[in-house]
Fold each of these.
Amino acid sequence: MSVVTSYARALAVREGRAQPIATVRHLHLAADPLVFIPLRLAGEAAAPLGAMVGNDPARPHLLVVPQPRNRDLRFAFMAELARIMLPYIEGRAAATETVPGKNERERYLDAPQVIVPGRGAVEFVRLLGRSTRFRRPDGPYPVDPAVPVLGQWLTYLYERTEFAGSSALVPMTEALSLHWATGQSPMEDANLATLLAWVCPPPGRTGQEAAAAAEDPVLWPPAGPDTDPGFDARVLRPAIDAYDASGSPEPVREALRGQLEPTWRLMWRAVELLRGLPEAASVGERWAMDRDRYTREVARLAEGGPPRGRRDRAGSAAARLWDMESARQSYDAQRAYDDPLVMAEHRATGKAFAGEVVHVDRERTILLPGGKKPVSRPLVTVRTADPVRLAPGKKVFSAHRRRQSGEIVESDGGLVVVQLNDQLAKGAGVPGVGDAVCFTELDLGGRIRPGFPAAEETPWTHGGPPAAYEPTDEDAEEDWS
Amino acid sequence: MGFLTGPHDPAVRTDSRNDREDRVSTSTERLDALRGGAAPVDHNARTVAALAGNPGCDRRAVLDAAGISKRDTAVHLGHPAPFGQSPFALARARSFEELVKADRCAHLLRLLRETLGLPIPAIAYVDVPQAGGQATRELRHARTRKELRLAAESAVRDGSGDGTLVDHPLLTLPVAGHEVYLDPAVLAVQAGGRFHIVEIKSFAVIDGAADSAQVAAASRLSAVYVYALKAMFAAEGIDPGLVSHEVVLVCPKDFANHPTATLLDVRLQLAALRRQLSRLTRIDRILDRLPSDLTFSLEQSPAELARAVRTVEARYAPECLSTCEMAYFCRSDARGCGSLEVLGRVTRDDLGGLDSVDAVLDLAAGDRRASSEHAEIAEQLHHVHAIYRAHATAEAVVA
Ligand code: SF4
């Protein structure tokens, strides 16, 4: 995947602690993110068991379902969760800015950011959204009106995670792994406690020792959504039995508090670690995209927008796929432009090179094919120690002057000649001898999405125009047993 | 059936019969000695499926072939494995299975007709009664064989014939010389002349998709039953080709308790299992290299046991953590010798061919000369090292 990361992992083993693989923070970090740690009952797809949630490290909200098999208690849990999450999510819709351009629009200055422990919790957010967004406050199985609204927002948050670079719903283990390489495997990095043990081992201990201690589920309960089977058998089951017998939720509350509190502290510790890194240059641009989508969702829901269907329609699926691809491409490129340690990987594999300018031909002009007047095309010669694998004619971009493009003219024995093609007004874009430069084939993207047929024009090969999604009574009454 | 052979599998019929039997008896004695008096562990479909987990590992092959409890061994070594199942998950699995099988499998029969469109005009329901105890296992197994033979005969005779559903069948499979009973939550159904294994799982299929790890585990498990059923057919002189490699997987649909069925193709898992089982039968080659007085008896001290275990080569990878009870012990050893394997497959592939942390870092720092096969990765590492030093060391590692 990455020689730099793998090298850093080896280094982490020798040094006894995680090693940085980024010099800047590649995700947005809100001033007050909402930390959400959901737990589910083992063996069930989406039966919530409890959660710790909140945006104040000192004041976590603890929510529990004292008998997770009881449908009413599950919906009561979701209603309570909605009372905490909705004010946070909807409360970001305050001040706006005007985004100029062809598609002039208003955009909220803020957007919700929810941080969960890991990939498992992200998936659980999807299932919670799926199991609640079709519910109705009226009809045969009425639920609290806030429940389907929360369901829509959880679905929105989950869908943002499909776009690389979104910071709307962040799995913490992945956020940390983007910035530090540990001396354990990626599989083990999915455990928040051991990952953090490597990143900041307690004094006098190596990351390895600290991680081994953190593997004990009694000291460091799993970060969810699955609980430790031993805890289920020894603590949780008796506590649920006690609820069934006495009606008191306290034993379950206390049991789950013990499971959730350690993770709560780890989550905020991790937030502080990430905050210690300066924000990368492109993060603002990507967060603006999250704010854009949030603004749209607020408006859609305000107009009574229906819950998303169970499955994507062909037309919107193709457009989404394209958007996902393009988000991935610009995200990868942006991180490299923003961070010399990420660019290092591309330099090591020959897709980029950095070095010092040793010669400049500022006045060079050429005649473009079919052109009449010679145009300015300066040549810059760079001395580099990087293993350049860019053939003559290859289009490259300057890492320092974003979006300035050029092409390789020749490359031989550590000297690379690049012809600059644009951003040359009055010679401003030409580096001088002695300057440090970096060129890469990575394209920042930003291409315009080709037109996909509108939903009503979906070709018959893709099922023909879809019927608009109308949530049915069946959806609303679906069991949640 | 010959000791230590795979089930009637052409792949393992390579040795001549006498030759095989000679070797088999010496291996058996060796394996019993390795176990050191303890009773062999009871395999089940899950442990058999796990055999294919790390097929390259000699240590595991020997422990499994000798029927040694890896769990007890790991505990004795001071590295207990973190495996366990929640009572809630078990209860859920049980109640869903009961639901599917209620009323002589009424739900299931409907699903087989509707969902799968299996051409089942009429289905005879045959229940092999469950009863505990080792002795009755033989009886149940004999009864299962008989019912399946009858069903197969009618299938062959009538072309397709009426369907037969066999509930609570008991299959066997020789694993490394021991008959393993597979007491499945599954049924075998004959329809249209083909036999399918039915597997009931309580993980949900939501909007047509299920958790891929769970599906993969179910596929591995079902493959064991398919394999055993084919073996049984072969033993009965029936064409094993009648057993379909498509398994009927029954799961709850969406968030409700309603069962839904899907066909699952387990050919890949079958192939992996076949390879591993036949590998266990060729354990001699590994045994030949081991000291003749070696034993894994738990009577010895942990240090002695650890020494004994270490005489058999392991091939640790992080995947062991979810498939083998010995994982913590093997990981600790692999770390102790600075192996790169502990960092995972991606890292190993990135650093192609290098096997230790020291090799990587020394080549990167230029403290060691690269052999010609490692010249390319060494050059890359050297380069990364230089860039990394320039950028990362300037950044304070967060304390
Ligand atoms: S944990 Fe050890 S014995 Fe088990 S498969 Fe892995 S290396 Fe082999």
Note: Chain B touches chain A through 59 residues (CB under 8 Å).
Amino acid sequence: MRANKVLDGNTAVSEAVRQLDPDVVMAYPSAPGAPMLERLAMDIANGSLDTELVNMESPQSAISGCIGASAAGGRVFSSASSQELAQMHEMLFIASSLRLPIVIGIADRALSAPINYYADHSDAMAERDCGWIQLFCESPQEAYDNIIQAYKISEHQDVKTPVMVAMDGWITSHTMENVSIEEPSEITDFMGKRIPTYSLLNSTKPLTIGSFSSPNYYFEHKLNQFQGMENSRKIIREVGKEFGDRFGRYYGYFETYKLDDAEYGIIIMSSAAGTAKEAIDRLRSRGEKVGLLKLRVFRPFPFQEIQERLLGLKAIAIFDRNIVPGSQGGPLYNEIRSAMYFCEDNLRPKIFPYIFGLGGRELNLSDIDNTIKEIKEKTEKVESENGFHFVNVRYRQVNNE
Amino acid sequence: MITLKQLASREEWFSSGHTLCPGCSIPVILKLVLGASRNPLVISNATGCLQMGSTLFPHTAWKSNWIHTGYGNASATMSGVTAVYRSLKKKGRLMDEKERKFLVIGGDGSTYDSGISSISGYMERGEDIVYLCYDNQSMAHSGGQASSATPVGASTTTTPAGTVLPGKLQTRKNITAIIAAHRIPYVAQSAPWNWNDLLRKAEKAFETKGPAYLNVLSPCPTHWNTDTDKSIELSRLAADTCVWPMFEIRGGTKITVNYKPRHKLPVSEWLKSQDRFRHLLEKENKWIVDKIQEEIDQNWDFLLSAQNEEETK
Ligand code: SF4
Ligand SMILES: [Mg+2]
């Protein structure tokens, strides 16, 4: 039986992990995602889960342990946020290059300095080039659903690429909402056990994993990895459909909200999409033709699908929840702008970069209202799209002379 | 205890055809340590000479299961492997029921320095893993820079002996004491000149339930600038000068010294055998040699006095 429970995002993640019956959890506590691990530890302590949970001494060790566990054929889970995720950086590349299925849960938290305890995407975005699939969640329900799909995608024979599932720290990780928890046997049936192609524990067929690759081979090795990520494009869609057919909640690369007839669009990820939807409802009631695209899959980036979906809008505002000094805009902005390069000029919307929510700064409904007003005016006056826009901040202008 | 002849007939987990330097001690150490296991091995190897020199794709010198991920995390990687082993064993899902042994191998850089936190972690958790450190007293693979295993006075590429500085200024880290402080069941120090000693210690390490640690001197002709046929001899000279005592510690406290040189040689014999110390033999550096001798004597006296009473009788 499906159960409706009131859960926060962390608990929703641990519910999903518990149902997937991982062989190993490599634990290193990292606020605000540590409760994901604590709840699993409690299940083990109470005998309702027979996973091996190992309390590792550092984030680097936790991710290294994930690599070892996956190479030994196990299904493994870990979690990290902010500094702890940054400390995993080196090993994230190694995990994806070795083509190992691993899933980690992230409760996004701003990177130091200054030290800050609250949500933004600087942690996950700093890892966007490390070869992991990246899924972003708006709600505890999405966190639950994405963790389950993440394992299915990651372990797929054509993919064999690790996945990070990110939700906003404190906001999604700690806010209680209604979550549909599926029948455990249904999840087992959906997933199956991991059947590894190779395992370090197969003593009849010894493996050498992580060998030295000379200039004669390295390039091909990297292309092989690249191919795995490319293959995931199809698998992510298939798994999202299969999940929907079975459980009634369908997933693709992104979700759109009132975008079909919109003239102006907001692009945003994670929990702020909730605020954006509310703001759009209010703008719509005043007759404004606005809509939303909430991105779920940042890696692999769905260039083509995004381009098709945004074609014909007058203007879009892209909301990035992190800042990259010296760049022309946040990572989401740069990816989308690049995706739109091949559009016909007359169909290409104007694209404006917005930075919001750093270190947990709230995004207000009025911020979205103002944004729409701003991009409308600029579009009508045919003003330049260049220059950052900073949302809900004391200094809106940065001197870039 | 097996004979050399028996050892030679055992399955070799590490084959010839690797690209380690001529005269390198690592293959000799490996032959003895790997030969001590009667069970299939899973090995996690830190980045370094051995890893680079044994797995030039598409070749491999390894006949056992082997993984390399990074530099300071070889034992953390193995913690993941053993966790799956325990988990699958518990759930009855292991592919084959053969008992496995788990061995981590690192050089001194990835052991004394960058790996120390993950080594300490697995030891605290009591995981059933043997750790082998081949200690060539420098970051050999990256070009012979200093590590915290480099002895005081040694000239390396990052502690060169110059007109003002006489090489490395710090005493080397006492890693075996640090490991022993974890009170793990078995810690031993050995060197390849005494094959019997090293083989027995490796057997003991594999038999031990829980963490075991082997610290093995690994003369490096390339960076010590010594003749390629002198490595084994040098490892003996290290024992005869008490630069490298051969001992074991059980349960963190029970110390046994396994080799006591009949004539303890002065450290100057050791220093003059290698280019990296040659500058110490100059008159103005005599105070350093005296200091090194004093430290060696203190350490040796400590080991002898700390020996387990029953063992010495
Ligand atoms: S540099 Fe030294 S330790 Fe490394 S392979 Fe050569 S001889 Fe052996
Ligand atoms: Mg070394």
Note: The two ends of chain B are 22 Å apart (CA to CA).
Amino acid sequence: MSDMTYRDAINLALREELRRDPTVFILGEDVALYEGSFKVTRGLLAEFGAERVRDTPISENTIIGVAIGAAMGGLRPVAELMTVNFALLAMDQLINHMAKIRYMFGGQTMLPMVVRAPGGGGSQLAAQHSQSLESYFMHCPGIHLAMPATPADAKGLLKTAIRSKNPVMFLEHELLYNSTGSVPDDPEFLVPFGKARVMREGSDVTIVAYSRMAVLALEAAHALEQEGVSCEVIDLRTLAPLDVATIVASSLKTGRAVVVEECCGAAGLGGDIAWRIHAACFESLLAPVKRVSGLDLPMPYSSALEKLCIPQADTIIMAVRDVVNGRT
Amino acid sequence: MEIKLQAILPGQKLMHLYRQMVLSREFEEGCAEQYTKGRITGFLHLYSGQEAVAVGATAGLHHEDYILSAYREHAQAIVRGSDPRRVMAELFGKSTGLCKGKGGSMHLFDPEHNFMGGYAIVGGQLPIAVGLAFSSVYRGEDRITACFFGDGAVNQGTFHESLNWARLWELPVLFICENNFYGIGTEVHRSSALASIHKRTCGYDIPSEKVDGMDVIAVYRAVRHAAELVREQRRPYFIEAVTYRFRGHSMADPAKYRSAAEQSIWKSRDPIPAFAKRLLEESVATETELEGIRRECTELVKEAVQFAETSPWPESSELWDGVYVPDDAVGESDHV
Ligand SMILES: Cc1ncc(C[n+]2csc(CCOP(=O)(O)OP(=O)(O)O)c2C)c(N)n1
Ligand SMILES: [Mg+2]
């Protein structure tokens, strides 16, 4: 085990997989010479050369299209979108092509590719640079969607993503890049998809979260312990595939659940998860499932306003209190 | 003076080109009939009139070269080697179809013949072609990638992004624009500021030429030459093949936006009788031989229809197959 940042854990995963498999290559805007706008690809050009770590034009749709073609041709591209906001310029290749190609061609080809993108709010980057778009991708069959919360998961999930034979959206949280944790040194350390992690066991309420929201949920759980409320915290790790079994088992055990999402609440993934809990646990629930979501607003710039739009540990704490006290 | 056909290709090969054009035409006309009978459903875009482009171009490529196209691609797949019976079965939505009934008319795919797909998003195949060409370079393969698209696709962002990228990374892509003068009902000069499409590539420093897309030999020679350049220099090249579709955009389109006079001028240039005439004039074939080919192709299409008709529908148990690769590293998706 080594202590390292989330950023370095991702860098290490890329490095190990580039070393292991010569068909892996990296492409994206400013990923090579500039070493990534969040410096995630630092040192990779130096170690692996310009053949395998490739700067591209600012052409998001074509970055994804080229990765698709390269994957179809037998390579394992890891594309970086500078931020997930720019995935919107690539939605045609992501949704109409990447997610559909295998199925519409009768299973005759596969696309072993990864699309990495930093995202999330909280850095006062305002409306066009602060989005959480995970529900957009979770809504689309044919894509796997990983969103790590910890450095260890960042490494293990990314390595699994690169080795997977399916297209994976790998969404990193910009506010987690500097977070630290211990990460296994084993170059064969892989975290499987579709297996949520129980971050903390508890008996009164289940909190379901992912990415930075899982970190905040854990913080909330510590605080609630002082009030005598015992929270079980589930970090989903991957939203597709979704580990419904773990969510349901925990909700049956505690009888209460709070689902936390950073994305906007309207038609957000939290509603889908809440429904799954209701459908499977209705008889055993002591209270309706509660959702904590980003507000349905374009992100404002001012710090005074921005913090109101993104779920905070306090928001989660209040939601848990409501569920425990039977307030809906 | 025009070069004699047999100075360009041996007689047998010339006859093969004729046969492929006839088969393509017969296949499309057979599709129209089956559509009218309600056996082919969904969108159906026919290639009648444009055969010289697919046939001439494919003959100028190697079999291991990748081909990608749009949704008007039945002929391109068949000419490349796909079994017409399985193409027809795909159009019928049967389980014996090229894509097991999952793709339909607009999404043929046949990796055995390096036919890397028909795509129904205008311009969507261009970046994918660039990526495939990159995979060939990366893997040290000799093959090139030929990417077909229409005159409508040249106003998409992907067109500009892909041309720039292919030249920037020096990738072996042969871009082939089939200019049939219309994107659905919009004539080229109403959608493109510069209607002479091949001239657009100067902005990307990609050499280009215009070729008569109603002349199978002209297309063959242009593509063969271009393909060799692309293969040797590992650089993109661009061909604009000027052609015409004899039918509407799709079976649902009566094509009222084209004058009768315009249509009859182009019909008088039908690539199939034009080539037959040359074959006869230059004594490459006799009328009896050509008639034999036509009958044989009609028969093949009948067989294809018969095969499609008698093939089973996909089972509902196949519904979930092929979304994801079963993958040990990744748990099965949850299909609640
Ligand atoms: C992105 C996108 N926009 C619009 C359409 C609808 N559409 C289908 S075909 C077509 C015209 C394309 O014309 P062209 O590229 O010239 O090809 P042709 O039909 O002439 O072969 C349009 C607008 C589409 N399929 N994809
Ligand atoms: Mg057209």
Note: Chain B touches chain A through 51 residues (CB under 8 Å).
Amino acid sequence: MTDTLTPVLTDNWDADRAWTLASYEERGGYAALDKAFAMTPDDVISTVKDSGLRGRGGAGFPTGMKWGFIPQDNPRPKYLVVNADESEPGTCKDIPLMMASPHTLVEGVIVSSYAIRANTAFIYVRGEVLHVIRRLQRAVQEAYLAGHLGKNIHGSGYDLDLIVHAGAGAYICGEETALLEGLEGRRGQPRLRPPFPAVAGLYASPTVINNVESIASVPSIITNGAGWFAGMGTEKSNGFGIFSLSGHVTRPGQYEAPLGITLRELIDLAGGMREGHELKFWTPGGSSTPLLTPEHLDVPLDFESVGAAGSMLGTRALQLFDETTCVVRAVLRWTEFYKHESCGKCTPCREGTWWLTQTLARLEKGQGDEADLDLLLDQCDNILGRSFCALGDGATSPISSSIQHFRDEYLAHLTHGGCPFDPAASTAFAPVGASA
Amino acid sequence: MTSDINGAESLERAGLDETTWAELREIADRYPEKRSGLLPMLHLVQSVEGRVTPEGIEACAEILGISAAEVNGVATFYTMYKRKPVGDYHVGVCTNTLCAVMGGDLIFERLKDHLDVGNDETTEDGKITLEHVECNAACDYAPVMMVNWEFMDNQTPESAVQVVDDLRAGREVHSTRGPRLCTWREAERVLAGFPDDRADEGPAAGPASLAGLSIARERGWTAGAASDRAEGESK
Ligand SMILES: Cc1cc2nc3c(=O)[nH]c(=O)nc-3n(C[C@H](O)[C@H](O)[C@H](O)COP(=O)(O)O)c2cc1C
Ligand code: SF4
Ligand code: FES
């Protein structure tokens, strides 16, 4: 039996000065290094494979398998790049992790780099989180001084340099090839694949790109074993993950649990929806994952089950909206976001997100007619699967799913001649009991 | 490639002081390939110049051996780089969906009104630049406001007005889960990779970050250790 919540990555966040090396080491931090160095790099990769760890950045690709794709006979240097861009609307787990315990990530970087035989690693962190960047810079500095980074780490003969790199504001740089462009000092536009980064990534060299939480999970797997990790979660979605609850719930925040927990259980732990209100719609994994409704409260939050329910587990960014929220307003705002963040490289996304915004804005004002809903779905059809990267696909998710579940609410805007909701009622500072 | 002598000449041309030139080069040298330094170099330009200036662009281009047009193309791609001078405090109100619904829209409206500026504009006293920003990875603290990219969690229109009033009056303001606020230029310097001394200020985590952990503590829930769980135990 596994406990309902399983703090591993979050376990030291309440420790005194948790971000410091002293606090981290006092709890056994950096012990995974010696254990890893006593293994061959290939054995470290096998352990991560056996654990069943799947990428925590959204797509759920098996991490150990990704590492195994690095061609070790390629004479070029190998690189590890940590994706700390965390900009998918609703996603808010990596930032508190790096703020509270940057050393968990640094330790993970060292073990992971050792496994793929990289001697240089990068943390690409979004620029808009100043204090998190300070904590990362300090952690890296402390790790160097303590001999966890640099030359001949722990006397193992293994060398690693780690560079903290601040981005400059661009959601698309979370897409791994756009991130590499940013890291090479260019406009963040995705690259054509193949070649995949594992073969030709940063500086055309073999590169592994992993999410913060994926890499931060590695030390615990090395310390406790693949079986320990695989013993949590569901059949094909092993281990634990941080579930981020936000919105109209009594206690929003971070809840670390085995994959497969349900939203019903999580809301229950979080003290229920805010008083006097009920859940209307939610995102399972950020705004790019199709909206779900209360009908889906008992869907196990693992990769397979959420997929079967018509959405995606994504980043476990559970944004919860109650009945005071206008779904059309919500979707319009996300669509404006995609339009703003479209990198402009391909026509379906660049033009398509513009058209989507126009059509939606008209509907939200109560203008246009029912045929506009079909127009929207048509426009989505022209973007989904035809865009150069997944940003375009993601832009269609809120629209098509909201029309599927809330067609009547769109129509209500037309009959009402505008939005029938009072925006004040949905705010966190609305008087208790206010309703739309 | 730039020789020392050319470097000295460009120093005249580009109007940045010698320290800045040296620091820009230092950033480029951190990377296996110099051009990787461009994003942090532009952050440094902003910290010195208060925005991305033509002089700053020239300097980056010269150090990296690329054209000014290329640097410009990068500078215009990323939203944190500003063409117009930014005030001492950049105030960003999150108006992405979740924060907007939770009150971000009302906060942004109130601040525009109170400061008498529009989006991406600076108050006459040069203190505050107001902008609406996208999701800043703090949705569990909605509605969120960022001041010089520090978290101001769980805001209301009133608390937001108080923050900007305090800043304009020169009173010390703290991030709700971070340090004393520095100026925008000082913040840009940290982003360029020159740390200040504030890493140890503020808590490890805010209350929402600890929501699940507190429950686990109360109920004695853990992920167990290797010894508690047989290898390959069925789920
Ligand atoms: C538009 C877009 C934004 C993304 N943003 C992020 C992000 O902020 N962080 C992240 O880890 N992955 C993000 N991803 C996914 C990455 O491309 C990549 O799959 C991931 O970093 C791989 O790491 P993982 O296997 O450890 O999950 C994004 C993808 C797209 C298409
Ligand atoms: S889908 Fe959008 S973000 Fe992706 S490459 Fe095309 S224009 Fe750029
Ligand atoms: S929506 Fe505002 S911080 Fe995420």
Note: The CA atoms of residues 190 and 196 of chain B lie 6 Å apart.
